């Protein structure tokens, strides 16, 4: 039986996708849900997801990614965008949602609201770093679930966020592109699938 370790060894950061192979909509939904269901600090989910599959936008994103062709050739590109300044608006919306989903009075959440608002008083840069870190948690889950379903992916920070923000109209929504993840299926001749994984030996990795 195929183990999760087999899946993780199968996975690599794909540089060349097969442009003819598309991820089917059901699988795309599984991947979207994987990210939506991720754990985040306080459960606030201070990031959003864009799913891009049209060629024209993918071509523009490739140009804003130092020409990395995986962005254009992949079936879909997931762009994870952090909320630059999560604040009272996000907290209020979140508390309303908890109150509705769990059927509890909003006032019961006052203590939690206070703690969260206190956290969000941090300087802007600290806040945007914090919200970006939450997006990376979703990235980890995405890569693992992709591997378990034998869907290929390439995690990417190698792009110009300013250009992404412009192409995708992110700034006007208070968002910033933090990660791009092309997903699809590896091309048969992507040579990176044949190179050995390089990781620190276990005895160095697990310290005593
Ligand atoms: C946050 C992050 C950003 C990365 N950015 C890029 C990138 O812009 N382009 C790229 O080809 N690979 C990128 N990678 C892939 C790494 O180079 C790759 O994961 C690493 O070398 C380990 O190889 P493996 O994933 O194939 O096992 C990125 C990986 C991570 C986790």
SSE topology:
Elements: H1 4-10, H2 25-36, E1 47-52, H3 55-63, H4 70-73, E2 76-83, H5 88-102, H6 110-119, H7 124-148, E3 152-153, H8 161-167, E4 175-184, H9 202-205
Antiparallel strand pairs: 1-2, 2-4, 3-4
Bound molecules: flavin mononucleotide.
What do you see in this structure?
With 208 residues, this protein is α+β, with helices and mostly antiparallel strands. The protein has a single domain, classed as NADH Oxidase. Helices cover 45% and strands 12% of the residues. The protein has a 4-stranded antiparallel beta sheet, sandwiched between helices. Helix 2 crosses helix 7. The longest helix is centred in the middle third of the chain and has 25 residues. The chain binds flavin mononucleotide (FMN). Flavin mononucleotide binds next to loops.
